[in-house]
Amino acid sequence: QGNMAFTGKYEFEGDENYDAFVTKIGLPSDKIEMGRNCKIVTEVVQNGNDFTWTQHFPGGRTTTNKFTIGKEADMETMGGRNFKATVKMEGGKIVADFPNYHHTAEISGGKLVEISTSSGVVYKRTSKKIA
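The line above is the sequence of FABP6 protein; the predicted structure tokens follow.
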């Protein structure tokens, strides 16, 4: 534990199953359009088990989730809903259950790989490290 494997800045590189997933979780069509191939920059600061996870969207909007592994935290979903979740660390992956999807994040081959699953629909987003 305590490795700083996640710290860094990552730029959206590609995704799989975006439309099927965001439709499944009920995002409105304007948000779906806005998010498609969106060059989101994800900035992660890891300090032991404490994380600050910020997503910078084109146009200046940002969302930030602060959490500690194993402790309940206030979080915000892709669609902007607030909820409480306890984030876990399993085999080097960050794991969280959002209200309508299960989310994992890991560093693989120097890239940030995030996988969200909702009712059997699997959405994968890959971001390359830029800082």
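Note on the example: The first helix runs from residue 18 to 24. The chain has one domain: 8-129.
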